[in-house]
Design a protein that fits this description.
Elements: H1 4-14, H2 21-28, H3 32-46, E1 52-55, E2 58-61, H4 63-73, H5 78-90, E3 96-97, H6 98-105, H7 109-123, E4 129-133, E5 136-140, H8 143-157, H9 168-171, H10 182-195, E6 198-200, H11 202-220, H12 234-251, H13 257-271, E7 272-274, H14 285-302, H15 309-328, H16 337-343, H17 345-362, H18 368-386, E8 392-397, H19 404-416, E9 420-426, E10 440-443, E11 454-456, H20 463-492, E12 498-499, H21 507-520, H22 526-538, E13 547-548, E14 561-573, E15 576-585, H23 591-604, H24 608-617, H25 621-633
Parallel strand pairs: 8-9, 8-10, 10-11, 12-14, 13-15
Antiparallel strand pairs: 1-2, 3-5, 4-5, 6-7, 14-15
Helix pairs in contact: 1-4, 2-3, 5-7, 5-8, 6-7, 10-11, 10-12, 11-13, 12-13, 13-15, 14-15, 14-17, 15-18, 17-18, 20-23, 21-22, 24-25
Amino acid sequence: MRRRPEQLASLLLRAEGWTPAAALADALGVTPRSVRSYIAALNARSAPATAVESGPSGYRADRSVLAGLRREAESATPQDRLHSLVRELLEAPAGIDIHRTADRLHVSAATVEADLVRVRDLISGNGLKLQRSGPRVLLVGDELSQRRLVSRLAHEEMENGFSDLAALRQTAGLESISPAAFAPFKQELAAQLGEQGFYVNELAVSDVILHVAIAADRVAHSRPLTGTHVDPSPQQEQVAQLLDQLTRRHFGTRMGAGDLHHLASLVLTRAVAPKGGAAEVPLDPQIEAVVSRAVQHAAHEYLVDIVHADFLRRLSLHVQNLVHRAKEQAWSRNPLTRSLKSAYPMVFQVAVSIASEVGDQLGLSIGDEEIAYIAMHVGGRLERSRRSDTVLSATIVCPGYYELHELLRSRIDRSLGASVEVTAVETEMAPDWSAITTDLVLTTIEPPVPDERTVLLPPFLTDADTERIAAAAARRRRSLRLARLRAELEHYFHPDAFIRPLSAGSEEEAIGLLGTPLVNLGVIDQDYIERAVAREQLSSTAFTDALAVPHALKMTAGRTALSVGVADGSLRWGESRVQFVVLVAFSEEDREAFQTIFEQLVEVFNERDSVQRLLRRGTDFTGFLDELTAVIDG
């Protein structure tokens, strides 16, 4: 776990604008006084430049200064010392001497001993182990397992993905690879794969290049890979030949067949998808059947339109590649996981449902980053299906004078047709305003009583006017969503299912505490609580920096109800910290309400001001419900 000042730096670098001290303190699980001390320490290290500005609204990072400060500090962290020790073990076929290593790292032998305990935890279950003989320690395991360990180091250190390819050399200890080689390698690999009939996944290709660089470096140090778990196919041979050319040209390394076939498998199962024709890949009938059942179940459970032949084929190909990656223990990184989870919680939830069933049927354990790729498939399909649902109806009010109203309608259709549909045009000077029921009213004359639907316009629209319409449409769309949420929430809260303060040492304990009042009310049984815990183990339900929404995958509650817990400070939840935990119990009858409540509840708790207001004023059940309603009403 990173130290708190480093977590603080991450929060500030992600934030847009000013962040109150109380919000930072809650996110870190410390006091505002500690936050002030961390920021003072950061600014002392960055002097004479200021890494973090302070003001009446809180704190704001100078991004360039703070990011540079983090890079300079990386070598001094215990995490970096641990990784340095692992790299030394990887590079020493005869092992390392504890006392010499302690001298090199400028620490005591006892510190190295303690770090070795952490190394054992790091490599546990990865096919590697430490072998000890007096002061000498040797890392034992096959070459492929050792390469996976190098990859894991890079993944842990580069939390925001692999956009800075040159940094991989230092991160993964790739001393034989020139930093300048990564970018041209990536560009040429992507271009030639496209020419060979593949769609290239830009999110994964950089991660694949990491594995290629690791392999090139290991081969340069006389540690080739002699075999793989996958038999070479014609496609694999084709990609292997391309990799052979590129690694010799850019990395100055000639690899053997074992390395090239292994890397070609990674490319084919992680970074590309066939366009068709000669590159078409046959589908495994079992995988296709499993994916089809999982998608149909998710579509029924969450009432989403995703059962389409093209979607099923693309997702089946993805899962087929996922099975190959599982055999190689070469999971894909997805730098968009965090943003997908917070911005599209319902899409992510559908992906979790599919991943759970696919994993059970195929014997796979599918992590968050792989679930995020499934979510991207689901989101793409839903985007096509849901476009019509997001279009708002509009009435144009424009007194008839030649073709003014027609010109106005034409301009609106051209500029906003994807989000606003003009369904009526009023050309009277005194229309019946009360009879206009569309989502928006776009008018060139002042209405008697303007409301949130109304946008006053000149007869001839400018770009600024279309932007005002778009902004009004966004506000109206949100208002309609939150109105639906308010109507639903009033039925689902109960004063007995509100806990403040919520004190729990684990997610399982918190779910149990919140589930107990619902059991007492006859809403759920103990089995539902256990299934909510099982769902949490699949993927953390911390969808924002403030809120976790634990729930079971199946909607088996006797009726729909919400149990709310508010922490004093914050609770650790997965890799995050949250202030609010809402256990959601849904019944089959309320399936249609699931998407409304789930997505909009996350939206409300994604707003920092709303979270702070609820923390300050929602001290009891009545106060919480009043403030939540007020927040929703804006």
